[in-house]
Each structure stands twice: as C-alpha cells, then as structure tokens.
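Quick one, probably user error.
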C-alpha cells in the first residue's frame, strides 16, 4: 500500500448539496428554503437565543453576584467528640468513619475539628485537621496523620 493508492471508504464522503442550479436538480428556485418568511431570506433566520420578541431566557434570569469556584474542595466535617466513640488505641481512617456512619459519603475528603473533648488515645488519619483538634488528639496521647 502506497500513499497514491489510498482512497476513502465507500460511502464515507458525500457530495456537497448544490442549490440554485435549476428546477431539474430538485434544489432550484427557492433552494429548499420554502416560500416566504424569515428563514427563507439570507442570514439564516434569527440569532441564537432569540425567542420571537419574548424576553429571552438569559435576560429573565437574575444576575447573581460572585462566581462558582470549580476548584473548591468539599470536606466532611468530623468533630473530636465523634471520634471519642471508637475503642481506645484504634486507627481511625475515612473507611472506619464511613462504616460507623459518622460520615455519610464514601471517598469524600475529611476534616477533623476540635469541638468536644477526647479522652482516649487514637491514631487519626484524615485529609485535614484544625490546630485545636491536633492539640486535643496529641494531649490525649494519640497521633495525627495527614493523608
């Protein structure tokens, strides 16, 4: 096979529709646009979003301030007092929090906050910690690991 022998697959290329080339072609006179009206004239009709004079959708919607940050990270928040329900010395990670139904969604980022008291030592693995939560966990004899 050489480059001068290459041909497109049969049926993959269609001929361009030639309009306005006489009545015998089937696309003569009005060129397939019908008789009168806005769509029959040059310019192919109204602009995108035009609703026939009715107030268009983009003008009906309110203009809201600000913007939506597409890089925003959503965290499931878990307070220290919720961790206190686990057995002493256990390793707490997102899977265990999901199993105990402390967190509702599986595979979500988790942040540990410092509300409440902690009395038992734990090894806590999470995506983020507040300073107060780290202090409380370490004061109780536990460890903090950022995933």
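Nope, works fine. Designed sequence:
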């Amino acid at each position: 096979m050489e480059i001068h022998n290459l041909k497109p697959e049969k049926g993959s290329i269609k001929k361009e529709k030639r309009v306005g080339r006489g009545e015998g072609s089937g696309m003569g006179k009005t060129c397939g646009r019908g008789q009168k009206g806005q769509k029959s004239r040059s310019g192919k009709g109204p602009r995108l979003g035009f609703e026939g004079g009715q107030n268009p959708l983009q003008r009906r919607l309110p203009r809201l301030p600000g913007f939506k940050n597409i890089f925003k990270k959503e965290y499931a928040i878990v307070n220290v007092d919720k961790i206190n329900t686990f057995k002493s010395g256990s390793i707490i990670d997102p899977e265990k929090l999901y199993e105990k139904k402390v967190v509702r969604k599986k595979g979500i980022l988790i942040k540990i906050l410092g509300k409440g008291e902690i009395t038992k030592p734990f090894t806590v693995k999470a995506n983020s910690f507040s300073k107060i939560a780290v202090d409380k966990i370490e004061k109780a004899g536990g460890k903090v690991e950022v995933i």
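Strands lie at 75-79, 91-92, 109-113, 123-126, 128-129, 143-146.
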